[in-house]
Specification:
The complex is a heterodimer of chains A (255) and B (584). Chain A is α+β, with helices and mostly antiparallel strands and 255 residues long. Chain A folds into 2 domains: 18-124, Ubiquitin-like (UB roll) (Roll), CATH 3.10.20.30; 127-143 and 157-252, Fumarate Reductase Iron-sulfur Protein, Chain B, domain 2. Chain A is built from 9 helices and 7 strands; from the N terminus they run ββαβββββαααααααα. In chain A, the strands form 2 sheets. A 5-stranded mixed sheet of chain A has the order 2-1-5-3-4, covered by helices on one side. In chain A, helix 2 (127-135) packs parallel to helix 6 (189-199), helix 6 (189-199) packs antiparallel against helix 7 and helix 6 crosses helix 9. Chain A starts with 20 loop residues before the first strand and ends with a helix. Chain B has 16 helices and 20 strands. In chain B, the strands form 5 sheets. In chain B, strands 1, 2, 6, 7, 8, 9, 16 and 17 form an 8-stranded mixed sheet that branches. A 4-stranded antiparallel sheet of chain B has the order 11-14-13-12. In chain B, a hairpin with a 2-residue loop joins strand 7 and strand 8 (174-184). In chain B, helix 14 packs antiparallel against helix 15. The longest helix of chain B is centred in the last third of the chain and has 25 residues, at 502-526. Chain B starts with a strand and ends in a 13-residue tail after the last strand. The chains are: A alpha+beta (255), B alpha/beta (584). Chains A and B meet through helix 1 and helix 2 of A and helix 3, helix 4, helix 10 and helix 13 of B.
Chain lengths: 255, 584
């Protein structure tokens, strides 16, 4: 199916500088569990503008052409982590990927992230992902009584784990990992990032427990350092580096 | 249909809902029902900070914070509530730190603090460093930390369950809370949640407007559901337009930018806030700054090819300082506008940001059925509620504070109520109204598209009920809303399926938005004065004689099946501070 319509609302007059419009073909992976037995591809050709993102193109299709197109989204500016998708074969957030930054001569492919069961169109089952996160005890663990004021932490100690606090649980890293695709037991990069955030927090006293969990057969040692996760992270977290630091912590403490 | 039973049901899993869950979960059997996965909630988009008079970096106290909140809110704030919030702020911040929140630190290792709009030393003398923060992602850290604590405490979530109705029943002539009705988005199935206490923490309604910092999912569901069930809505005409949305997009750029030294300039390069607020300048409260920006544009001093925005200038700040304190918002400018904030000023314009009004509560977060009575078992906290700590204009950072202070209070109060209250019987066919609403919309063939109606609503609200309002523009908005409501009654969705029917979801959301838009506009029409975020071109001064009172809007049903809005009023609680002229 190929349809062409004008872009809504986004007239050039509203844009901060003159922005050209262009034609783009969106090639979407669709699957409706109530009517399809197999996923299928569907194309839509649209007129879009220079500040438009992949999410704008999906909304244009949903709002003007086919209301049944289904995807998750909320904040639409890269903070809530709802709209991780596989765009031109790479995991990204649809709301943070500008159309003009993609090659527009070819269709832009949009598929659900891999490794989690597809529920409908671009919506996948997030429960295994959240369960992996929970399993690494992603919360501050302390002993003794709480102090009456804040715990002290130097700026340098605070900086030590800053990178991994940025995680928005979008699953782009985990579902870009070839080990995760092939091994249903592996925690995946995000869970290790989540553990890193606490292991390297000077206030936390639960590192040993977490490292024990991560030292498991299905833990950090499954990582093959392919860097897919680092490339996929929309928050710019150095995911592979964080995983390496967790591996070193395991070796250092145990050897 | 499935039926569940919990002592406490919390609706919404942003900051207020999860803070409530942490308290209620320790004391009573608790479930959290949320339209989104908890970590998707819009608390995560808050950037700049959370104010508390910790006095870690300079002299400060909670009384100054209370005064700023009252004055910032243009004296429509209930002063007893503001005092509670400012006092409890200190423990609220310390509690978050103890939960693990990674605040930025001073060289001594204490929580660092920075300046924010309207927060001052000694009753307006100068800006004070009161905002506790974590770079420009304080809301993200709060949301993550509260979610992590919920995991630690095994809080039970029903994610992607959409609450569509409140259940009540009469007990000896008194109306009491019995539970809620929810729609499971994944399966399309209806679930009844029977509960002794229900806490609404569903957030805001920014999608009433076209240009907004709010998420697509912020459609005022909780407010509209309560309103449809006879609960009044308070002060809905007061909507905050945040000064610095990315021009044309509405994406939020934190006030923290100005707190760290950024300056607003017009097309002539002038620091125009010096004319509007000589003392606080760029750090005046948001209503003052937003109006000044809109006025600069209106008077022809806007920047850009269409002269329709002003500029946020960070170019005099050190790049290293920007990277350390404002990394996310500068990335937004790069990603979405291709602007490099180190060297180029960023185009900005006011964006619909926050509903000061909402479901009225007392300071114990109990929902008011009218000026005299509460609805037993019903609680609300956060943006959905109006306690009222924000009055006519919320100060920056006070929303993150509100959700923590009153979210906590709601969790405690809801559990305490459940501990002593008897179970209320479910009404007969509790699901019937919800099922009818869903099926009517899903099964209607060949109607107009939801998206077209929503766009028309948002456009009329932007054009007629935004920073500047007048009788003429508000009447235009009201007539547009009525026409859209009529068209909505004949609209249809294309997705007729049961599973993950987000088309249907958007249709229901539009129904809520239309109801709320009407309440906002009717309240704005009747308030013939200018106060805080509500500015009337035809009544440009505050009128304390006639309008220093809260608006209470009730839904009315007419004999022909149509509905309307009836306005009543509630006095403002004044304790320490008499209204004064507001100069910054």
């Amino acid at each position: 199916m190929t349809l062409t319509t004008e872009a809504p609302g986004a007239t050039p007059a509203e844009a901060p500088s003159a922005i050209p419009s262009f034609q783009v073909t969106m090639r979407l992976r669709r699957f409706n569990p109530e009517s399809d037995t197999e996923p299928r591809w569907e194309n839509h050709t649209l007129t879009m503008h220079g500040t438009d993102r992949v999410l704008d193109a999906l909304h244009k299709i949903k709002w003007e052409i086919d209301g049944s197109l289904t995807f998750r989204r909320s904040c639409a500016h890269g903070i809530c982590g709802s709209d991780a998708m596989r765009i031109n074969g790479r995991n990204r957030l649809a709301c943070k990927t500008l159309l003009k930054d993609l090659p527009l001569k070819k269709p832009i492919t949009v598929e659900p992230i891999k490794g989690l069961a597809v529920q409908k169109d671009l919506v996948v089952d997030m429960e295994p992902f959240y369960a992996a996160y929970k399993s690494i005890m992603p919360f501050l663990i302390t002993t003794g009584n709480d102090p009456s004021r804040e715990r002290r932490q130097s700026p340098a100690d605070r900086e030590r784990f800053d990178d991994t606090t940025k995680c928005i649980l979008c699953a782009a890293c985990t579902t870009s990992c070839p080990v995760y695709w092939s091994d249903g037991q592996y925690f995946g990069p995000q869970a290790i990032v989540g553990a890193h955030r606490f292991i390297f927090d000077s206030r936390d006293e639960g590192a040993e427990q977490r490292l024990e969990i991560l030292n498991d057969r299905e833990g950090v040692w499954r990582c093959r350092t392919t860097f897919n996760c680092t490339d996929a992270c929309p928050r710019g977290i150095e995911v592979t580096k964080a995983i390496q630091e967790v591996k070193q912590a395991l070796l250092f403490r145990r050897v | 249909m499935q039926t569940h039973q919990y002592d406490v049901v919390i609706v919404g899993a942003g900051g207020a809902g999860m803070r409530a869950a942490l308290e209620a979960g320790q004391r009573a059997r608790t479930a959290v029902i949320t339209k989104l996965y908890p970590t998707r909630s819009h608390t995560g988009a808050a950037q700049g900070g959370m104010c508390a008079a910790l006095a870690n970096v300079e002299e400060d106290n909670w009384e100054w914070h209370t005064f700023d909140t009252v004055k910032g809110g243009d004296f429509l704030v209930d002063q007893d509530a503001a005092e509670i919030m400012a006092k409890e702020a200190i423990d609220a911040v310390l509690d978050l730190e103890k939960m693990g929140l990674p605040f930025n630190r001073t060289p001594e290792g204490t929580i660092d603090q920075r300046r924010f709009g309207g927060h001052t030393r000694n009753h307006g003398e100068a800006a004070v460093r009161r905002a506790c923060y974590s770079a420009d992602r304080t809301g993200h850290m709060i949301l993550q930390t509260l979610y992590q604590q919920c995991l630690k405490n095994d809080v039970e979530f029903f994610s992607e369950f959409y609450v569509l109705d409140i259940l009540t029943n009469d007990v000896e002539g008194e109306r009491r809370t019995a539970g809620v009705v929810a729609y499971d988005l994944a399966s399309g199935e209806i679930h009844i949640f029977r509960a002794k206490s229900v806490v609404f923490a569903t957030g805001g309604a920014g999608k009433v407007y076209k240009t907004t910092s709010n998420a697509h999912t912020l459609t005022g569901d909780g407010m509209a559901i309560a309103y449809r069930r006879g609960i009044p809505l308070e002060d809905m005409e007061f909507f905050q337009f945040h000064p610095t949305g990315l021009a044309g997009l509405g994406i939020l750029l934190s006030e923290a930018a100005r707190g760290e030294g950024a300056i607003l300039r017009n097309s002539e390069g002038e620091r125009f806030m010096e004319r509007y607020a000589p003392t606080l300048k760029d750090l005046a409260p948001r209503d003052v700054v937003a109006r000044a920006m809109a006025n600069e544009v209106r008077e022809g001093r806007g920047a850009g090819p269409n002269k329709d925005y002003v500029l946020l200038d960070l170019t005099h700040l050190e790049p290293a300082h920007i990277d350390a304190k404002l990394p996310d918002i500068t990335e937004f400018a790069r990603t979405y506008l291709g602007i490099e904030p180190y060297t180029e000023p960023v185009p900005v314009y006011p964006t619909a940001h926050y509903a000061m009004g909402g479901i009225p509560t007392n300071v114990e977060t109990e929902v008011l059925a009218d000026n005299e009575r509460v609805l037993p078992g019903m609680f609300a906290a956060g943006e959905v509620a109006c306690v009222s700590v924000h009055g006519a204009n919320r100060l920056g950072t006070n929303s993150l504070l509100d959700i923590n202070v009153f979210g906590r209070r709601a969790g405690i109060a809801a559990a305490a109520f459940a501990a002593k209250a008897p179970w209320v019987d479910l009404p007969e066919s509790p699901e019937a109204d919800t099922v009818e609403m869903l099926e009517t919309l899903r099964d209607r063939q060949d109607g107009e598209r939801i998206a077209d109606l929503r766009r028309a609503l948002q456009e009329t609200m932007d054009a007629n009920a935004q920073v500047f309002r007048s009788e003429a523009t508000l009447k235009q908005a009201l007539s547009d809303i009525h026409a859209l409501r009529e068209r909505y009654s004949r609209a249809s969705v294309q997705d007729k399926g049961k599973r993950f029917n987000t088309d249907l979801l958007e249709g229901l959301e539009l129904g809520f938005l239309l109801d709320l838009a009407e309440v906002i506009v009717v309240g704005a029409l009747e308030r013939k004065e200018s106060r805080g975020g509500h500015f009337r071109e035809d009544y440009q001064n505050r009128d304390d004689v006639n309008y220093m009172r809260h608006t209470m809007a009730y839904r009315t049903s007419n004999e022909d099946g149509s509905t309307g809005v009836r306005l009543d009023y509630k006095p403002v609680v004044v304790t320490r501070y008499q209204p004064m002229e507001r100069k910054f």
